[in-house]
Amino acid sequence: MSKSISLPSFSTKFPKVSFNDLTRATEGFSTSNLIGRGRYSSVYQGKLVEDQNEVAIKVFNLEIRGAHKSFIAECNALRNVRHRNLVPILTACSSIDSKGNDFKALVYELMPRGDLHKLLYSTQDYECSSDLNLIMMAQRISIVVDVADALEYLHHNNQETMIHCDLKPSNILLDDNMTAHVGDFGLARFKVGSTISSLGNSSSSSIAVMGTIGYTAPEYAGGCQVSTAADVYSFGVVLLEIFIRRRPIDDIFKDGINVVKFIEASFPGRVLEIVDPQLLQELEENPMALKEKCSKCLLSMLNVGLSCTKPSPGDRINMQEVAAKLHRIKDAYLNAN
């Protein structure tokens, strides 16, 4: 027996999928098809038999406490949102597996370039290379703007405010054109007026579920309420990380120094000493006048990151301001080039 659900506002052209369909699509959930793991789920690459579309299938490990709630939260989040910089969901499967156990999965469009963490920290494809992937300044700016647009939409342009609660590079996925898409809404919350509710269970507390160490806002440590300002903080950390190419839990950050303080200590005069050496090399290859304009864009970018990561939530700028500033920086950079 297998029942499948297709979520309410999804287009009818998407198939209803059963457990058996997804088993076939992933060659029996083979480890060779496994492309990612999260706290509640495993993600497989697969091909649906009906239309031969390459998809990503997120299978929830329902034995883990919170996994079922995470599935419901993602369903509720994703059926209410549509934006070019959010990972497109195709359908959901709520069924029974071959052993008679509950089975829950979400089916997404596959993002062929993987996630931002992999882009930043994996080495180039050719053999024996220890060189990190080459990421041009223009690509970094574009990714940052894409993520800002997604968060601006979630915070300000949706029917209700949605708070992501777990923004980090591994939740930012890239398509063939290197367009960035924000995914993983398993911890997301809705805010209507001053009321915050979990998308997974209406009785859930509005106190923050910890996101990921290094990206969570400092106020969460004190048990503060979930807020859009905390998403802004996480976004700021991701922005800074993209340009210095160091994880916020890098060994260099110790004795009370975090990524924000590290950059503040060199800002603005010595910033070129701490950015990713690849960016320095790219700057050096420009003629002098262009180098100055590009350096100015880099400083402006980092300045936005610092404005997002102020210790007090009330001092941070909101995502509407962030997106507007970043679009201006991107336009200035493209015009200079």
TrEMBL record:
<comment type="function">
    <text>Receptor kinase that detects X.oryzae pv. oryzae protein Ax21 to promote innate immunity. Following X.oryzae pv. oryzae protein Ax21 detection, undergoes cleavage, releasing the processed protein kinase Xa21 chain.</text>
</comment>
<dbReference type="InterPro" id="IPR051564">
    <property type="entry name" value="LRR_receptor-like_kinase"/>
</dbReference>
<keyword id="KW-0808">Transferase</keyword>
<keyword id="KW-0675">Receptor</keyword>
<protein>
    <recommendedName>
        <fullName>Receptor kinase-like protein Xa21</fullName>
        <ecNumber>2.7.11.1</ecNumber>
    </recommendedName>
</protein>
<dbReference type="Pfam" id="PF00069">
    <property type="entry name" value="Pkinase"/>
</dbReference>
<keyword id="KW-0067">ATP-binding</keyword>
<keyword id="KW-0547">Nucleotide-binding</keyword>
<comment type="function">
    <text>The processed protein kinase Xa21 chain released by protein cleavage after X.oryzae pv. oryzae protein Ax21 detection translocates into the nucleus where it can bind and regulate WRKY62, a transcription factor. Confers resistance to the bacterial pathogen X.oryzae pv. oryzae (Xoo).</text>
</comment>
<dbReference type="InterPro" id="IPR000719">
    <property type="entry name" value="Prot_kinase_dom"/>
</dbReference>
<keyword id="KW-0732">Signal</keyword>
<keyword id="KW-1003">Cell membrane</keyword>
<keyword id="KW-1133">Transmembrane helix</keyword>
<keyword id="KW-0677">Repeat</keyword>
<dbReference type="GO" id="GO:0005524">
    <property type="term" value="F:ATP binding"/>
</dbReference>
<keyword id="KW-0472">Membrane</keyword>
<feature type="binding site">
    <location>
        <position position="58"/>
    </location>
    <ligand>
        <name>ATP</name>
    </ligand>
</feature>
<keyword id="KW-0418">Kinase</keyword>
<comment type="similarity">
    <text>Belongs to the protein kinase superfamily.</text>
</comment>
<dbReference type="InterPro" id="IPR008271">
    <property type="entry name" value="Ser/Thr_kinase_AS"/>
</dbReference>
<dbReference type="GO" id="GO:0005789">
    <property type="term" value="C:endoplasmic reticulum membrane"/>
</dbReference>
<keyword id="KW-0812">Transmembrane</keyword>
<dbReference type="InterPro" id="IPR011009">
    <property type="entry name" value="Kinase-like_dom_sf"/>
</dbReference>
<dbReference type="GO" id="GO:0004674">
    <property type="term" value="F:protein serine/threonine kinase activity"/>
</dbReference>
<keyword id="KW-0597">Phosphoprotein</keyword>
<feature type="domain" description="Protein kinase">
    <location>
        <begin position="29"/>
        <end position="334"/>
    </location>
</feature>
<dbReference type="GO" id="GO:0005886">
    <property type="term" value="C:plasma membrane"/>
</dbReference>
<keyword id="KW-0325">Glycoprotein</keyword>
<keyword id="KW-0723">Serine/threonine-protein kinase</keyword>
<keyword id="KW-0433">Leucine-rich repeat</keyword>
<dbReference type="InterPro" id="IPR017441">
    <property type="entry name" value="Protein_kinase_ATP_BS"/>
</dbReference>
